[in-house]
Amino acid sequence: MFNRRRFLFLSSLAIGACSARPLAQTITKADTPAAASAAPAASPASPAPPSSPTRPPNFGKAIGPAELFAPKRGDVRAVVISDLNARYGSVDYRREVMKGVSILPQWEPDIVLCVGDMVAGQSISLSKPEVEAMWQGFDDLILSPIREADIPFALTIGNHDASSLNYEGGYVYSTDREVTTHYWKTHQDSLDLQYDDTGNFPYYYSFKQNDIFYLVWDASSANIPENQVAWADQQLSSAAAQAAKFRIALGHLPLYAISQGRDRNGELLNNSDQLQALLERHHVHTYMSGHHHAYYPGYAGNLQLLHCGALGSGPRTWLDRTDAAMQTMTVLDFFFDSGETVYTTYNMNSMELVDNQTLPRQIVGPTGRVLRNDITLSDLTAAEQRQEYVRSEN
Ligand SMILES: [Fe+2]
C-alpha cells in the first residue's frame, strides 16, 4: 500500500511558501497521470490525463479563494475542519473559524468533513438552554452557510459536543448528549449525505459519497465499546465499502498522541492497537482525528493518520517541539488513478501554506511513533530511531 515514491509525492505537494504567490514546490515524481495533473501552476503544461466517466470537469484545475494558493483539484475534494469551539458555553466563534467558513466554498469542495468539537460543552455547570444556545450558534454561523452553499456536511462528535464518557452506566455529560442527539437528528436528512448505514447517528454511521466510503465512529471519549467496534468491522467488510475507491475513517480522538498536554490517558483512544489493526485489515486509507489541536500528516503501519489542526481556540504544538501553535484548515484532494491523497493546509492566522518540511519528522508518544507522511523508518538517523518519549509538561 505504501512506498517511498508515494511519500515523496505527498511531501512535495505539501511544501509551501507564501500563499499569495506561486508555490515553490518540487514534484519529485511526475511520471504518473495523477502526479502530472497535480504539478504546480508554474510548471510547464502537462498533457491532461484521460478522463474517466466520473471525473469532474474541473479535475486538475487550480481552484481556491482569491489571494491564496489554489491546489489542483483531485477526483474528489474535501475541506477538513476540526475543533471549532471557543470558551465553555460560547455561542460564537473566533475570527479564524468565521474566515474559514466564509471562504471554504471557493475551494469548491464536494464535502466538508468536520472532525468534532463544534461547540464548547463538557461542563456540568452548563444548563440545557445554554447547551441548546451553543448549537443554535453553530447552526447559524457554521452549518447554515455551508449548506446554503450546497456543500454536503459530515461530522464526528467530539468530547466538547457530547462526550461518551460513562460513569456507573450513565453518561457523565448527559445534557450534552441529549441536546446534541436532538440537534443532529433534526439535521440528519438535510446534510446531503448518501448514508450506507445510519447506525446510531450522529455518533456512529457510514456513508458513501463520490465513490468514497466513510466510516464514522464515536471517539468522543477514549473508549469505543466492543459492539461499536464489531459494527465498524462489519461495515468496513461490506461490499459497498470494499468496492469504494477509498475507505476513510473519522473519529475525534486519535490513535496516537501528537501534541503537548494531550499525551495523557483519556486524550487518545484506548485499544489503539486493536483499532488500527481493524482499519488496516479492511484497507482503510486514512484515519482522521482532531482533539490534539495540531496539524500533523503522519502514518503508522499501513494507515495514514491525518491529525487535523484546530480552527478554533487553543491550538497546540507538537510533542518535543517549541514552535508557536497555529490554527489550520486542510483541503484534501483524492486522486483515484494513483490512489493518493494530497493535503493542502493553511495557517489560518497568516493564511500561508503550512510547509510539510517544517513539521516534525516523527512524533514519539507514550504509545508509539507516528512518522511524517514523507518519511520512512529507514530515513531516520540512528539518533531519531533511538528517540524516546518525553512527557510534555503542560
Ligand atoms: Fe476535543
How would you sum up this structure, described in words?
The structure is a single chain. With 394 residues, the protein is α/β, with parallel strands linked by helices. The protein has one domain (4-385): Metallo-dependent phosphatases (Purple Acid Phosphatase, chain A, domain 2, 4-Layer Sandwich). It has helices at residues 4-14, 33-37, 95-103, 128-148, 159-162, 174-185, 226-236, 239-243, 272-281, 382-386, and strands at residues 76-81, 111-114, 153-155, 166-167, 170-171, 195-200, 204-209, 212-216, 246-250, 286-289, 296-300, 303-307, 328-335, 340-347, 362-365, 368-372. Helix 4 (128-148) runs parallel beside helix 6. The two termini are 37 Å apart. Residues 1-48 have low confidence and may be disordered. The structure holds fe (ii) ion (FE2). Fe (ii) ion (FE2) binds at residues 117, 158-160, 252, 291. Fe (ii) ion is lined by residues 117, 158-160, 252, 291.
Provide a concise account of the structure shown.
The chain has 394 residues and is α/β, with parallel strands linked by helices. The protein is built from ten helices and 16 strands. The structure holds fe (ii) ion.
